[in-house]
Design brief:
3 domains, 5-stranded mixed beta sheet, 23% strand, transport
Length: 585
């Protein structure tokens, strides 16, 4: 908002206050950028992966001992394998999943309602990473050789060809003393139900159903850097960013849900209530082109690939699995059997108390008033600016009161000018100034409090617009994607010009003219640089706020209070200029 960037300063101290607040804001903003993981990730330690079955670093410890199952046979199972490789395509209105009986795993997971950057249906399988670290719904074991055996084995499927949901697809495999049964049930939602039973030499085998290799929408380094691990145990929800994820680390306990996400999509396991589960986190690295549109063999960078797996030490377990968009409406419709709502997978961070209500308002406008996200953002911008209008008046009123008593304050300061800053009599000066302000009803923080109200709103808006999938590939006029920077930089340029206009129109009595000119040029340049590479949805909000700020400031300047503020500013500027001329003479 315009007033965030140039409140009516009050005296020389207020100009310093504004600079301090601006510095604090810049630190907070850049901090958010850092925590948004737009820096190049440090390569995680990783063992060389020569085969497609290497999914994660193998921990130093051996596989946890499996719990005994009463009545389990200790004999070697007879061989059960398919004669040839085959595929089964499962489809409903939301997805089209292609299973291969080699590994009984997924080779393609198309989301029909979403597109990739080339406008094709989005495949959530990250094929380049999956070829190295494993495909979705493969089985993860701590024994790399066994993991390779399970991923390359030809399972016997119950259905080949095509299967329309609702329905069930099962796979069986038995060889070399290892038996595995995997069963998947599909309905009309994004949720599938999986059941797994695994044994080795008749004893339970802890083989975890895995989503090991990130997501298919991850093409650039910032997209990989959006990866995180999400878990919920009891009422505790934890989100671990990619830098802190340890490959092969295992948690054991009762999970409400657990899985892996990127910025816009997620794969979340929802075990049976009360089921004791093992949850493993996977962290690998892969070299990706610096320019995915025009890849060059020598122009690559290292990206972190996250994955996760869930199973049971008993070797037999059942879980639901949600694979789909991180849309609040979709996530909120998934029952969690008393656990935390899946909406918490959307990472609003500390600003969730502000960001989520803002998004709900934005979504309401889009659904019921304006079926375009860009216009909905501008409508919300208008409403927020109108709601914040009283703070603009409060800032001007506080500024006017301060300027009215400024001559008296100058006299008090002149009275004590001969004393050093460490002299105790300087405290008497401060008391006299505070008594004068109290007498005249001036609050020295009156111009700062409105900013403290508006900045959290701005940061919450920033966090919201950067994390909601609804803005992904959302069009507005010339902008093809409101979640991405303006490809033509029209919005940042307009933002700089409009912010300069706001600075020029806003009176700043008591501020040195040279300093005022410096701020009029410096602040638009700094904030314009910010908008150059942020999502155009946020840049649209800022630019819209500036336009409204210009209109509001022009109207306020014509009021009696506005005219008086400008007259005081003009008198003080003329007086200061006269002193400078006399000094030069």
């Amino acid at each position: 908002m315009a007033e965030i960037r140039n409140p009516n300063q009050q005296g020389g101290q207020d100009s310093k206050t504004v600079l301090i607040f601006t510095g604090i804001f810049l630190v907070m903003f850049l901090g958010l950028q850092f925590f948004k993981q737009q820096h190049k990730p440090a390569p995680a330690a990783e063992k060389p992966a020569a085969a497609a079955t290497s999914q994660s670093d193998t921990p130093a410890s051996s596989e946890p001992p499996a719990a005994a199952v009463p009545g389990a046979s200790s004999g070697v199972a007879s061989s059960v394998q398919a004669a040839a490789e085959s595929t089964t395509v499962v489809e409903n209105e939301l997805y089209r999943i292609t299973f291969s009986n080699r590994g009984a795993q997924v080779t393609s997971w198309i989301l029909k309602k979403y597109k990739d950057d080339d406008g094709k249906p989005l495949d959530l399988v990250n094929h380049s990473a999956a070829a190295k670290f494993g495909y979705p719904l493969s089985l993860y074991t701590y024994d790399a050789a066994l993991r390779g055996q399970l991923a390359s084995a030809l399972y016997k499927p119950s259905v080949t060809g095509s299967l329309t949901a609702p329905g069930t697809l099962s796979f069986e495999y038995a060889a070399n003393g290892v038996t595995v049964e995997k069963s998947f049930t599909f309905d009309s939602s994004y949720v599938i139900r999986a059941q797994v039973t695994a044994t080795r030499n008749g004893s339970p085998l802890a083989a975890m159903l895995a989503w090991p290799s990130g997501f298919g929408d991850q093409q650039t380094l910032p997209q990989y850097a959006g990866g995180m691990i999400d878990t919920a145990q009891g009422d505790k929800v934890e989100q671990v960013a990619y830098k802190k994820v340890v490959g092969g680390a295992t948690q054991q306990g009762t999970f409400a849900w657990a899985g892996v996400s990127d910025l816009y999509f997620t794969s979340i396991f929802l075990p049976e209530p009360g089921q004791e589960s093992q949850f493993v986190t996977l962290h690998n690295t892969i070299n990706i082109p610096k320019n995915p549109k025009h890849p060059e063999p020598n122009q690559t960078e290292s990206a972190s690939v996250l994955g996760a797996g869930l199973g049971s030490p008993t070797g037999t377990y059942s879980t639901r699995l949600f694979v789909g968009p991180k849309a609040l409406g979709v996530l909120g419709s998934i029952p969690t059997d008393g656990g935390p709502n899946l909406e918490k997978v959307v990472s609003f961070g500390w600003w969730g108390v502000i960001s989520k209500p803002l998004f709900l308002m934005l979504r309401f406008f889009h659904q019921h008033l304006i079926p375009n996200w860009g216009w909905a953002i501008l409508l919300l911008t208008l409403i927020l600016n109108v709601a914040m209008l009283p703070t603009r008046f409060q800032m001007m009123k506080s500024s006017l009161k301060m300027q009215r008593i400024q001559p008296q304050m100058d006299q008090i300061k002149q009275k004590y000018a001969k004393f050093k800053a460490t002299d105790p009599r300087k405290q008497e000066m401060q008391r006299e100034i505070m008594d004068l302000q109290k007498k005249e009803g001036v609050n020295m923080f009156g111009g700062c409090l409105p900013m403290l109200i508006q900045w959290p709103l701005l940061l919450g808006f920033y966090r919201m617009l950067g994390n909601v999938i609804e803005l992904r590939q959302a069009h507005w006029l010339w902008l093809p994607d409101l979640s991405a920077p303006d490809p033509y930089h029209i919005l940042p340029i307009f933002f700089i010009i409009s912010m300069f206009a706001v600075q020029w129109l806003t009176p700043s009595p008591g501020v040195d003219p040279a300093q005022q000119r410096m701020m009029a040029f410096t602040m638009p340049a700094v904030f314009g640089f910010m908008t150059w590479n942020i999502g155009s949805g946020l840049a649209l909000y800022w630019a819209g706020s500036n336009v409204l700020g210009i209109v509001q400031q022009m109207a306020m300047n014509k009021t009696k209070m506005g005219r008086e503020v400008r007259e005081i500013a003009a008198r003080r500027a003329a007086k200061k200029a006269g002193k400078v001329i006399n000094a030069r003479r």
